[in-house]
Amino acid sequence: MGVGVMRVLGFAGYSGSGKTTLLEKLIPRLTARGLHVAVVKHTHHDVDWDTPGKDSWRHRQAGATQVLLASARRRMLVEELADSNDLPLAAHLAMLGPCDLVLAEGFKHEAIPKIEVVNSALAAPALHPHDGQVLAVVGDLPQTLDLPWFHRDDADAVAAFLITRLDLPHAEL
Fold this sequence. Notes:
Elements: E1 7-12, H1 19-31, E2 37-41, H2 55-61, E3 66-70, E4 75-79, H3 89-93, E5 101-105, E6 114-118, E7 134-139, E8 149-151, H4 155-165
Parallel strand pairs: 1-5, 1-6, 2-5, 6-7, 7-8
Antiparallel strand pairs: 3-4
């Protein structure tokens, strides 16, 4: 199976809404249907996957702006960005290899089609109907909306919706 045109779908909601848990359930369902899936996760935290004292960390400390750690089964690129540099999603997408679908978690203000993830316990303001890019809402309590609503535990229904709505190639229902 070849990789088709890359489609991008956002998963937006407030911290603690269940975005990561939903993606964790969706990814195996989508890949089982033959799709090549990538994830871009936005965070406001200063993260570092490197280990202090290891060679790659030492290279960065010496001034390298990019360090690619390569092994037989995976690779990891660590790139230093300028202070307060919050790149748009498009800049991150340009770094990815070919895939059928990119799931973008946490880019709630990007102008991309998205699924809103809601946790009623948070009492956070809804993105829909103010964001016309919201295709559906996934949450813990049923809502009456003018667009599809799915329970957060029904990953099969969400996956089927995404495949149909995004017209994903190679995906078998």
